[in-house]
Amino acid sequence: MLLNELLCDEVVDNAQLCRQTLLPAINAYAASMGLDDTDIWADVFERYLGAKTDCHHPLVFADILRICRSDFCAALGQNVSLPLDEEFDLSKLFHKWGELFERYLANGSSYLLMMNADARNDIAKYLLSAADGSGSIRVVFPYPGTGIEPLLLLYTMSLIHEVRYGSPLDNVKFILIGDKGGLLRSIDTADNSFDEVFINLKNSFCEQNRLKVKDIKTNLKAIKHKIAIIAAEEWIDKPQSVDIAVINAAYMGCCEIGSDCSLRVPIGLLIYESRNDSIPTNYESVQVIAETFDRAAECAVHYILCQRQNNAQSVGASDTKRASAKSNYIEELYAVRDTFSEKEMKKKLAQSDYIVSEDQMIRYAELLLIAGQYGKSFDVIKQYYETDFDKSYQLLQLILSKCKNKKINDSIERFIVDKEMKPNGFGEAMLEAIVDGIEDYFDANPESVLKDKQWL
User: Fold this and answer.
1) Largest pairwise CA distance in the chain
2) In the prediction, which pLDDT does 193 show?
3) Is the torsion defined by CA of 197, 202, 205, 207 positive or negative?
4) Whole-angstrom Cα distance, residue 396 to residue 259?
5) Quick check: 187 and 147 in contact, CB under 8 A?
6) Lowest mean pLDDT among 98-102, 170-174, 243-247, 434-438
7) pLDDT of 355 above 90
């Protein structure tokens, strides 16, 4: 209970308060629980980030820590063995590791499937219908996070299949493709780390369908045998024959393997997780088979069934599509901007083969800011601040808080004064909105006994 109260931004953002209150609480918690350090840190960060990421499974956090251990070690450069030293910079750890956890949770393909049963059920039903139509299917998951999401999907499919036909699933095969380093949580038949998740899934499924749990033959051990794990290098060198790929949009944005995998789907179908309705190059949308909402990114997510365009396109049509892709690049990158580190964003912006329109300039400035290119970001804002006054002011304030270059900061401060951005910023915009609202009210209610001065 004490940890739950202390694991809040008010404490974490204050280095001294964090050291004086939260640090001894974590040490005491670790001593009393008797778990290894990884499980303790996973539990702590689930309590801190669970509501922000909508992921309330400490085991997922523990898996991310184990799979991406080198990234976490490099991010801090401090010894994180428990108990912590009294002078340990705990606030810094929360900021560094918090960003990593949020990025990995956003990039897994896909933790949304783990957390959203409705979307998972819709995809499971579609894959089952595809398997029934063709006799059997092989489904590939590039970068499947910890592997728990595909396992949940396959388990759901088997439960539905058994209710329909009286026997567990036997005509579907899942292939998981690991990260480029070959890192992936092992789907071990003896591993019972996530048994509780599957027990709850089975119980709720039976309850909803008025079935007795003991009568259901589908079991986790049998499902695990239907999943094969292949390293990314092996997949690239020896293309496998599969029918459907389930590809995550965020990973396609930051990993080259995304398009490679989709092009190796013979019948040209993939389920593409999209946060902005964009379709991969050379594919066209067939239907939206599932929808959910990403609370962390505050946007809708569609699982779009796409089909490769097998007909040869005319040169003109190809050129038009390429031009469209260039124009959409900034919008697509902006939609998943929170999934990239400074270094990754800089690399994304370094490629010159994209077009930035005038109405995208302020978003482009924000991407430059994320990439740590504060001078370039300021140059763009200077030219286009009038297209989005309030957003420009917010970005300038962010640059001032992050940039260590005194010359750039002095120029920004002069610019804010010269353009009178403070008095004309959010406050004035809000006042204008209030006044407009008052006028609209009296236009619609001319007989009102209220007076506009009283309102104001």
Assistant:
1) 78
2) 66
3) negative
4) 36
5) yes
6) 243-247
7) no
Strand blocks (E) in 258-318: 269-274, 283-294, 299-308
- Reading the block at residue 122, the tokens are 């819709």
- The one-character DSSP state at 438 is H
The C-alpha atoms of residue 36 and residue 409 are separated, in whole angstroms, by: 45
Three-state SS for 137? strand
Q: What is the mean pLDDT of residues 311-319?
A: 45
Angle value at C-alpha 354, between 353 and 356, nearest 5 degrees: 150
- Burial of 143: CB neighbours in 10 Å, binned 0-12, 13-18, 19+: buried
**Is beta strand 299-308 parallel, antiparallel or unpaired with respect to 244-248?**
unpaired
Of 30 and 264, the one with more pLDDT: 30
> H helices then E strands: how many in the chain?
24, 7
Cα 251 to Cα 180: distance, rounded to the nearest angstrom: 12
The torsion angles phi and psi of 9, rounded to 5 degrees, stand at: -60, -35
CA distance 340 to 348: 9
Q: Is 303 helix (H, G, I), strand (E, B) or coil?
A: strand
Q: At what angle do helices 361-370 and 374-384 cross, to 10 degrees?
A: 160
User: Minimal CA–CA distance to 124: which of 144, 154, 147?
Assistant: 154
Q: Is the pTM of this model over 0.85?
A: no
Q: What is the pLDDT of residues 177-217, one digit of tens each?
A: 655 444 455 566 666 767 777 888 899 889 888 889 989 88
Other residues' Cβ atoms within 10 Å of the Cβ of residue 151: 24
Specify the pLDDT at position 254.
Answer: 35
Locate 239 and state its tokens: 């293309």
Whether the Cβ atoms of residue 303 and residue 312 lie closer than 8 Å to each other? no
Let me know: does 172 contact 137? Beta carbons within 8 Å: yes
Q: For all residues of the chain together, what is the average pLDDT?
A: 76
Report the Cα 27 to chain-centroid distance in Å: 31
